[in-house]
Amino acid sequence: MEQYQKILQFLLTIPGSVKVNDTQIRMHCPVCNKKDNKLYVGLSHNPAFTSKGLKILGYGCKQCLFSGNVGKKFYDTLGIKVDKDLMNFQSIKTGVPKTINKISKYETLNLRIPDFVRPEDKFKLDYLSKRFNRKLTMKDIFTYKIVLNLHDLYTFNNLDILQFTDKSDKKACMSIKYLIDEFSKHFVGILSVDNNKVNLRNINSERLKSKRYMVHVINKNIGNPYLYIPSTKIDLLTPTPTICLAEGNYDIIGAKELYYPEDRTDVVFAAIGTRTAYKRAINQIMKMTGFINATIHIFADNDKDTDLRWYEEMFKDMRHLLDTIHIHYNIANDSNGNPCKDFGNLSNPVELQSYII
Ligand SMILES: [Zn+2]
Fold first, then answer.
1. Architecture of the domain made up of 242-356
2. Alpha-carbon distance 145 to 143, whole Å?
3. What is the pLDDT of residue 167?
4. pTM
């Protein structure tokens, strides 16, 4: 009998435990104490383990945020003492290593997008498919770094949700748990280029009804400005470097879907959060890619308060580093006759008006 089987067999002797299948059981959760025993314990699918052939037991409660890998904390919380031989195989390092670029000093968390979709998150895929105006695939989830379930992003990467929180600050811990729970159930997210910020769209949260978008920062000690770059392959030596930019994540996704549906290795796509950040973002992308003399395409929000002169003025002092700068607006009206204004929802029409500055 393998070690994980021994542990599951032992856990099944605890009242309330039920076998789900050969590699998974469910138990009574001591944390939320809900009656319907939704604490699942089973073989971890985390590729950090499976790629090395390790059979590690993980646990996660569907009702609350009690989750992690079976070990001392798990047994302590359950209030049981076990012999050494029922500990979880090897001690597992928790925490996500970060990478720091030696030149740009840019810090990045080493996170991976979960490679599965829970049935209860399917409505989020449907929401996105509507916005993308086509059915989303697993490849899209990786390319666009979509976080269907924030809690899964943590557990899949073996990261404690309170990793970067002062655990003695009970109020802060409660608030993070509450938010992650709400985000996981009702929001869909997109992960920033440094893997440290999740930009979340509210789909059906009543409790956070007034918030359409929220940003969740994983490690608050990393202070990179906001930048989202879909994960596409880039040829750093391309003779035709191109940088496409928009303010919002969904706008740059929309622009890529509309105008660059095929895989292109000469184009970097980026969303920058706010239009005042265009210059900073281009500077940063130039540092990351070495793209000098790139053609710039800005898929701009069609607001009354910014005209072409505003963009000309902004780029004045970096003009010599760039090729042509194209500014594109969506001037279409939606079915109710209201201006669409941007590229963020492809179920709306698009009528392009383009300028070169
Ligand atoms: Zn629970």
1. 3-Layer(aba) Sandwich (3.40)
2. 6
3. 83
4. 0.73
